[in-house]
Write a structure and sequence with these properties.
Helix content of chain B: 25-40%
Number of domains of chain A: 2
Strand order of the largest sheet of chain B: 1-2-3-5-4
Number of strands of chain B: 10
CATH class of the largest domain in chain B: Mainly Alpha
Helix content of chain A: 55-70%
CATH architecture of the largest domain in chain B: Orthogonal Bundle
Order of helices and strands of chain B: HEEEHEEEHHEEEEHHHHHHHH
Number of domains of chain B: 3
CATH architecture of the largest domain in chain A: Orthogonal Bundle
Shape of chain A: globular
Number of helices of chain B: 12
CATH topology of the largest domain in chain A: Cyclin A, domain 1
CATH topology of the largest domain in chain B: Transferase(Phosphotransferase), domain 1
CATH superfamily of the largest domain in chain B: Transferase(Phosphotransferase) domain 1
Largest sheet of chain A: none
Oligomer: heterodimer
CATH superfamily of the largest domain in chain A: Cyclin-like
CATH class of the largest domain in chain A: Mainly Alpha
Number of strands of chain A: 0
Strand content of chain A: under 5%
Radius of gyration of chain A: 21 Å
Radius of gyration of chain B: 23 Å
Amino acid sequence: MASHDKLSLLNALLTLEQLQRTPSREDGLSEEQEDSLRQFGCHLIQTAGILLKLPQVAMATAQILFQRFFYQASLRKFAVRDIGMGSVFLAAKVEECPCRLTDLINVFDHLSKKFRHKALDPLPLFSQEFYDLKNAIVVAEMQILKKLGFNVHVQLPYAIMVNYLKVLELTEHPTIPQRAWGYLNDGRLRTSVYVCYQPPTIACSVIWLAAREAGVPLPMQPAWWEVLDSKLEDIENIAGHIKSLYYQTLPIPDLPLTITEVEPYLQRQQQITLALIDAEKRSSGGNANQAPDLDITMTAAGTAEGPDRKTESKSSAPRSVRVSRFS
Amino acid sequence: MASLRNHAEQLNAAVYRNYKKDRKVGEGAYAVVYLGTQLSTKKVVAIKKIKVGQFKDGLDMSALREVKTLQELRHPNIVELMEVYFHKTNLNLVLEFLESDLEMIIKDKSIVFMPGDVKHWMLMTLRGLDHCHRNWVLHRDMKPNNLLLGLDGQLKIADFGLARDFGDRGRQLTAQVVTRWYRAPELLFGAKEYGYGVDIWAIGCIFAELLLRNPYLPGNTDMDQLDTMFRALGTPAEVDWPGMKSLPNFVQFKHYPRTPLRLLFTAAGADTLELLESMLIYDPNRRISAREALLHPYFFNKPRPTPLENLPKHVRESPEEAKKRRKAELLDTMTQDERKRVFRVLDFKS
């Protein structure tokens, strides 16, 4: 594995090919389906981490491990819940705040029940289900380590961002630090920003976004981001990714948690797509300027095979991802 | 790159195929160590097999710590993690193999240490440790047993199972680290925040052990450890160590006076004792750092550190060889008559 290369303070980034031909997409999932499952997993990790009273850094690491894992494995083969549990378990150890297996199982079981609107009865400690979950965690942990080649180092942009805020004399501003921090959280939560860009660029981007919204001008001669080793193009791209989150809602009850739920989910999605294509055929010719970005359960937009439809649905967020040279 | 998906699996399988386990050389709390061969180069390696039981709590923390820190650290005086691979449900760490360790050398009383030998060992230890500390890694288990020695004389720090990052103020660390004899006073008093000082204290104890050829502060229990320490170095007062009394497990000890080190270390030079003393300062904030220690006059004064190839080496013997050697030694010390008697009793054939 990578053990011959010296590990640096930079994160492992993906190549364009890895980004476009993810295992899940090769397995027949659409970009949107993969995206929503990734988001779902990160949401699950964040919620579980809060219930487990883990420090934020453990959740952040877990989410990044989770994101990285699914560039090596397919969402059709590995369940969001299992890898989610495994990432939390592993990240807690990596960040030196290990959590008990029993607590982890209880929390994830509680969350699965909650997401499915089931009765929130605690899981009996000696039930088969409990053992199965325990086993799933241990297996998932191994799988993650294996697929990532034991590279569990994760660099987070939080500290860097605070330093940048200091440099830009923004620490005392009433909204910018808080907002930028929030964007960092959300960016990590929901998109693959963290596998495409290095922490300093991400830090610049959230500051750029927050300062823009607050209407605070920042030094332009030379441009402040150049001094901080970032490019405007990357900054805008990340900002677009982060902002795009706020236009989507995640259909949580519908998303598959376990591996047995994946195929029925994909079938349901297929049917919706077919119905949509059907409807479109019937009303074809009429409405060219139908608003593309509002039917966002994400299901409708992406699964259609028609190439023109796909490009249309991108208007709300810049989807094209520039891949860094660091990879 | 036709199948990106199986990339990791293929790599893992390729790595696995490249190693052969030859024989078991040791068993620890969470791992079995094998002597192995890297087939592509015929190089001898140590393979640490970590058992991952199905119903335990997943992968052992120390294994993870070891992998995580060793991936980061590359230094001539730190053992190299060559590869990591899975086989079945076991995790295997492929490490450099070194023939002996400092503990064996210290115990092997047939070897006489020259001052230059000790100097070079200390130099190598400090270089390795300085590299750890500069990368914000605490070793937390420095002891002669974890300082490995290769046939070329090179010393390497090993066993990073307790290692972790430090320097983050306000983060609580556990005080239950380091083998007792080498444990720093702040740890014995239960300090939850500490830094490089714990490793330096341990090195100080190792330094003293190299000079004495015996453990310097062999306490039987944690309390006795403190007692032993204070007997040797004097009970610290508030001026020696400000803030000592606010440590969680602080206990007031009987007052022992401080005995000058030169009374115990009669053969050691003034610079040697000065360095030793600055490593064994009670106040962790005033204790010397690895970097400062490397710049200490001790390392620049004569005698020069013994060249690597002339450093004493301990040849690790197989059980059969050891038996043979002991028999020979025994026979050497006996008179002709005694030998005959023993032969009869033990039925020695040769």
